[in-house]
Input
Amino acid sequence: MTTPDADRTPPEPSEGSAGAPPRPEERLERAVMAAEKALIEFEIAVETFRVEIENFSRLHEQRLGPLYARLEELEALIAEARAARTGDPEDLRRAQEARARLTPIPGVEELLHGWMDGQGLFPESVAMLTERSVQPPPRVRPGEEARRLYRELVRAAHPDLAQDEGERKRRDEFISRVNAAYALGDEKKLLALQEEWAAGPVPERRPTPADELYDRLEWLAARKELLTELAGKLEESAIASMLRLAPDDPDGLLDDIAGKLAGEIAEREAELAALHQG
Output
């Protein structure tokens, strides 16, 4: 997809008909265009990384959450069985603490009218608040075709390319739909959005005064700082650390962790059985 706004090449400085030097604004215009393109590419990279982390986090919770919960339950059962055998006050205290960690806060569900339990928002509540499906995404990350479509759409329709407030609002609304489709890896939806954008109005780019160009450069620099800060926070997250362990096979990483947890569960179950038999 090619539009006047997408992949545009800044014009070469030109001399007037009488050999006059180029306009002073031309160098500034080229600098703004280059900065806009660089920022869009950076924003695409940050958003892609954010989607990968968010999807992997949800898959991590879906796949490993029940295993961790089972381990915690077994730890409490073992502590209670040991305390019942020894009667030691310290063992009793540990058993009570282990059980307390598993016990939901009394009355929370009634207090919050079914929106939350002791572990946080119900999945249905999250879906209602975020308009996302309760089910996790089918993939850890969007496929290559989805990435290609997303890149083209953001390059073409990015709100920062708007020249008036009405056009910016139209682009903001459109890009929010693009982001939602990309987060799900929905290639068909992205293709439909690509066709929709190609059929829509393409505003003409108007000359920009020098003072507005300077303001634009300052805004782009501030936006880059914000994105850099966001990227840093994403990089420091625990989920990002896990993804770095197996960037090409995150599903395999989850399988490995699940296998280790299953082994620990088997050990705890054997320990609990021994305590009951002894």
Summary: Confidence is low (pLDDT under 50) at residues 1-10, 13-17, 108-122.
